[in-house]
Design brief:
200 residues, alpha/beta, Nucleotidyltransferase, domain 5, 7 helices, 52% helix
Length: 200
């Protein structure tokens, strides 16, 4: 029997770092934990230490098997990109220090995997995370992004690969046919996930 595994998704930020843990088993995805680490204003080194320390607590509490982090998007503001990269480095260090393998995905991959649409906005991502995990309410944006990162790795590392192919096709179709604010394309993503995660 294939045992379940836990995936920690991380949405790094110097002011707020989102985290989300899901459990993946054959035919099911289950929410385990999620939240937002609010980093107090302080010297950069102390803020990075806070991210590392608080994520270590999350890892200890939930016992994930692996971690998933979004790749850095190169912003027009080099300073912002550099600061985000340092926050991301602290998050990765927390995972690696706990012995977790770290998997990286682009924002496009995360959005396509979760919403079936590479240009989904934050509200759409929150709603789709809520639906895929059967939550009573949508999680905060930072936590939703972290959960989406975990969901992305869940489907990318799952078998059969046809599920990933369906989600990729859904994303391509949505991009060709829907405007950014149109949520009707989400039905394609839900159909693909039914084959893997038993979404309702």
């Amino acid at each position: 029997m294939t045992r379940s595994r836990r995936i920690l998704g991380i949405d790094p930020g110097l002011n707020r770092t989102g985290y989300g843990v899901i459990e993946v088993s054959p035919g099911a995805l289950r929410w385990v934990d999620s939240g937002v680490i609010r980093v107090p204003a302080a010297e950069l080194a102390e803020r990075l230490a806070t991210i590392l320390r608080e994520l270590a607590v999350v890892i200890e509490r939930n016992g994930p098997d692996e971690a998933s982090v979004e790749k850095v998007f190169v912003n027009v503001n080099p300073k912002s990109t550099l600061l985000l990269g340092q926050a991301r480095g602290a998050a990765i260090c927390a995972a690696v220090s706990a012995g977790l393998a770290v998997h990286e995905y682009t924002a496009l991959q995360v959005k396509q995997a979760t919403a079936g649409y590479g240009r989904a906005d934050k509200a759409q991502m929150q709603k789709m995370v809520q639906r895929l995990l059967g939550l009573e309410r949508a999680p905060p944006s930072d936590a939703a992004d972290a959960l989406a990162c975990a969901i992305c790795h869940a489907h990318a590392s799952s078998r059969p690969r046809s599920v990933a192919a369906q989600l990729s096709a859904a994303g391509a179709a949505a991009g060709a046919r829907r405007r950014p604010h149109d949520v009707r394309s989400q039905g394609r993503s839900r159909s693909a996930w039914r084959a893997f995660a038993g979404s309702k």
